Amino acid sequence: MTLETLRASDHLRDVRYEIRGKLARRADELERAGYEITKLNIGNPGAFGFRMPETMRRAIIENLALAEAYGHQKGIFPAREAVVMQQQDRGVMDVSADDVFMGNGVSELIMMCMRALLNPGDEVLIPSPDYPLWTASVVIHGGRAVAYSCRPERGFQLDPDEIESRITERTRAIVVINPNNPTGAVYDRAALKRVAELAERRQLVVFSDEIYDHMLYDDNQHVPMATLARHTLCATFSGLSKIYRACGLRVGWVSFSGEKMHARPYLDALELLASLRLCSNMTGQWAVQTALGGYQSINELVSPGGRLYESRAAMLDAVAQSRHLSVVPPGGSMYAFLRVKPDRHPEFDDERFALELLEQRGILVAPGSSFNVPYRDHFRITLLPDAKVLRRVIGAIDELLEELAS
């Protein structure tokens, strides 16, 4: 008997997530065949020897007995209250524990927030480049992702005028990713204030992805969106995966500030969705209070002499010596968005190059087009390897580009 093809849902027709797509699957095949692959496609600290703070590990162990039963659908109170205290330290005083939702990573919360908000045809403004889950979450739930460009020639800074030009009667929300993934751009206060004013004037929800908020280099400063968007609903996303190097715990949170009375139906719908999944990971939630209230070891990692700082410096130095590459120095995050110089490679294709780099040099990167940009001359790498590895990687990339150019 021949079985009829089992088709996937039409909801997924335009959904892309190439960071873990066909290139990553090919890398897994090569590893199983015995090849050593340097995987720079994902910001996964544990894979590069980073460890979560020991105090977080102890907090989990000491509370294991309390993690065996279901918890509250919004999360355990100590974790939510720790997020409240962090927001208050930033000057955001209108957040209570009832305004915080814990999730299985920020990824789950993004999906839930879009599912509770969108009807077919609703529009959400999303930066280009973006972390592709944001675009995917809009498309999956029947919405339309409308890109606003953060152009390379502007240092990947957002342009409030362009954002305003994209707003229509169907626009429901504006997404801000700061520091940005994949570019590492850190947005200045004046631009963010204008975006907040736009959202307030047009009664749009602000979704602010701030999971890299403490991962800053040199004199860059992070401005929390919740300190600016006071007269509309503002959702701030963060978690333990990056700053606290605990991706595998799958613990994220979203806190709601600003105007909330008019948003009661939406927030009730979000709680309904949280209830349907019963609760998020109980084990990891017990690390949140210790993480947010304890010593912030990330500050050492991003300061001169710290591993992330030195890896970034090595990348910048190696790119500066390259005949083929350029980069806008990332002000934050754990990524660099490298550009291949178009004058030397006028027909460069990021996906084709990424495959050649994997097959010929054993290096896995994420093509720039994976981040919903119209150009194909960029690719993203993570800065998590140590400085020596990054120098070797950039050198190998440069060698391959030299071969292709000649």
Q: Could you describe the 3D structure shown?
A:
This protein is of the alpha/beta class and 406 residues long. It is built from 14 helices and 13 strands. The strands form three sheets. The chain has a seven-stranded mixed beta sheet, sandwiched between helices. Strands 9-10-13-12 form a four-stranded antiparallel beta sheet. A two-stranded parallel sheet has the order 1-11. Strand 5, helix 7 and strand 6 (205-209) form a beta-alpha-beta unit. Helix 4 (105-117) runs parallel beside helix 5 (132-140). The chain starts with 21 loop residues before the first helix and ends with a helix.
Gyration radius, rounded = 21 Å
What does the overall shape look like? globular
Low-confidence stretches: none
- How widely separated are the two ends? 54 Å
Strand order of the largest sheet: 2-8-7-6-5-3-4
In percent terms, what proportion of residues is strand?
Answer: 15-25%
Alpha-beta content class? alpha/beta
Relative helix content: 25-40%
Largest sheet: 7 strands, mixed
Q: Assign the CATH superfamily of the largest domain.
A: Type I PLP-dependent aspartate aminotransferase-like (Major domain)
Q: Architecture of the largest domain, CATH level 2?
A: 3-Layer(aba) Sandwich
Number of domains: 2
Count all strands and give the number.
13
Encode the helix/strand succession as letters. Answer: HEHHEHEHEHEHEEEHHHHHEEHEEEH
**Chain-averaged pLDDT:** 96
CATH topology of the largest domain: Aspartate Aminotransferase, domain 2
CATH class of the largest domain: Alpha Beta
